[in-house]
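Lab notes, practical 5.
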Amino acid sequence: MDELKAKIREYSHLAASLSSQARSIPIEPKENRKRKLDLMRQARDASLQCQALIQELKKQVA
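Output from the prediction step:
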């Protein structure tokens, strides 16, 4: 269970970090928009993985 909590923290921090990086990139030029979207997709994926792990943790606790 501690390993699961550690993974949840890791994915949570990763999602926050990627989102923060994406917000700090200016929209122009066009290459920046692609990089910004890519970072936001990665942040979303990390967030979804974190949510899945939280659900797994809830199952283990119940």
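Observations recorded by the TA: The mean pLDDT is 95. DSSP finds two helices and no strands in the chain.
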